[in-house]
Design brief:
The complex is a heterodimer of chains A (197) and B (212).
Chain A lengths: L1 H8 L14 H7 L3 H25 L8 H23 L1 H7 L10 H11 L4 H31 L1 E2 L2 E2 L14 H22 L1
Helix pairs in contact in A: 1-7, 3-4, 3-6, 3-7, 4-5, 4-6, 6-7, 7-8
Chain B lengths: L1 H47 L5 E4 L8 E5 L7 E11 L4 E8 L5 E8 L21 H4 L25 H24 L4 H11 L10
The chains are: A mainly alpha (197), B alpha+beta (212).
């Protein structure tokens, strides 16, 4: 029972983006299209799950004073694996995500979960926590990506939705559009959470 | 002191493990990544110079690097050349490859790397309707060097709305490179037959042996 709770908290109650407000920079930057959102979400989830598990495994072997450099080493290793694998097997995605893949290293969701959760809990719990947080993060990226792609480019997954003469609201795929959509999304989620209580 | 050394050693053990595992991953993915890059390069080359079957790197002493395209394995006379150029766009270095015909006109261009403003500068690779190629790139086909100017500069390449800097960067970088190429090759036009046979002797097969 508690494991299910551990999983769902990342999606709703402690959603990394909407509630913990972690990792906003990549969220705003890559959520211009759905494909980018999915790609970034999966990459971050993979890193999150793997680093959570490894850090939970080695938590007793890590001297307190140098825990942060060791956590970062673990995270950077997994990020590099993702980066190389993506360049080898999904070159188009790797091209469109560009610098944001290496920047997962400094995504505060990941270090935040390593420090705040995985270094205090068992492997299974840390795995579930990472998965939940990753799914929560991916979900927000996809929601934002969908809204911004439809409004800002008039396409969905690259397919045009409207006729030739549709003029998309360019602003939506530019940075201000990202701030608008994330603001509205956070407001909606707060409203929803209040209703549920 | 001893304490610090101990911490340093522990950290070293962790980084060592990380380093070794990354080395292994790198070894697995490296050939695949190189293969992807090679395919991408070949696709772009075919795109701008479809007539050519064989691409050979230029090995003459001149400062320009370019590929020579031949229509058959025999490599008697070139059907065109491929050059790479970089332009300073609005937010990125725009990398464009383009083909040059034997009378020093642009064959076709292909923008292979850009990170311009989404919705504005990125429209340089936008495809409209059923067209096989981006409309902006198509405007460059069979233009001579002096004709490579965007409308804002008195030329007749229609620039992208709201992205004059991007449009200009591409047009100017292609123009500059083409002029340079024309000067280099035009000067040695008399002994071009000599160059061709030299090239044939020095390179075995294909143009894919360039280091990346």
């Amino acid at each position: 029972m508690s494991l299910i709770k551990e999983f769902t908290k990342g999606i709703i109650k402690e959603n990394p983006v909407l509630v913990l407000a972690l990792g906003l920079c990549p969220t705003l930057a890559v959520s211009t299209t759905i494909v980018n959102g999915i790609g970034m979400g999966i990459a971050a989830t993979f890193v999150l799950v793997c680093s959570n598990m490894v850090i939970s495994l080695i938590k007793n072997l890590v001297p307190n004073r140098i825990r942060i450099p060791i956590f970062i080493t673990v995270i950077a290793t997994f990020v590099t694996i993702v980066k190389l694998a993506m360049a080898a097997y999904f070159p188009a995605l790797s091209k469109s995500l560009g610098i944001f893949i290496p920047l997962i290293v400094v995504n505060c969701i990941i270090l935040g979960r390593a420090e705040g959760f995985a270094s205090k809990h068992g492997v299974l719990k840390s795995f579930i926590d990472g998965l939940g947080m990753g799914v929560g993060f991916t979900m927000i990226l996809v929601i934002l990506g969908t809204c911004r792609e439809i409004l800002g480019s008039g396409t969905i997954l690259g397919h045009p939705l409207f006729g030739e003469h549709f003029k998309p609201a360019l602003l939506m795929i530019l940075p201000p559009g990202g701030f608008f959509s994330i603001g509205i999304l956070i407001a909606l989620s707060n409203l929803l959470q209040k209703r549920l209580e | 002191m001893k304490f610090i050394l101990k911490l340093g050693l522990i950290l070293m053990v962790y980084t060592l493990i990380a380093g070794v595992s990354l080395g292994f991953i790198n070894k697995v993915t490296k050939p695949k990544i190189e293969e992807q890059q090679r395919m991408e390069r070949e696709r772009a080359q075919k795109e701008v110079l479809p007539e050519a079957l064989v691409f050979v790197e230029d090995t003459t002493s001149g400062g320009l690097d370019y590929l020579i395209g031949y229509d058959s394995e025999g490599r008697t006379s070139p059907v065109g050349y491929i050059l790479t150029t970089f332009g300073d766009g609005f937010s990125s270095k725009i990398k464009t490859i383009f083909s040059v015909t034997t009378d020093f006109k642009v064959g076709a261009i292909e923008i292979v790397y850009q990170e311009e403003t989404p919705g504005l500068g990125t429209r340089c690779v936008e495809i409209k309707g059923d067209s096989p190629e981006p409309w902006f790139e198509m405007q460059f086909d069979s233009r001579s060097p002096q004709d490579l100017l965007v409308d804002k500069d008195g030329g007749n390449i229609t620039s992208i709305t709201g992205a004059t800097i991007t449009s200009r960067a591409i047009a100017n970088s292609v123009q500059e490179k083409l002029e340079e190429f024309k000067n280099e090759l035009g000067a040695s036009k008399e002994d071009s037959i000599l160059i061709t046979s030299e090239v044939r002797d020095s390179i075995e097969i294909g143009g894919d042996n360039e280091p990346d």
